[in-house]
Amino acid sequence: MMAAAVRRWRRRAFLATLGGGWTSYGFLGVLGDPRYGASRGLDVVTERVPMSVLGTVWVVCGCLAVVAALSPRLHGLQAAGFTALATPAALWGTAFLVATVSGSYPRGGGGACGWLAFAVSIVWVSGMDDPPAAGREKVRSWTSER
Question: Closest by alpha carbon to 8, among 83, 85, 87, 78?
Answer without folding.
Answer: 78
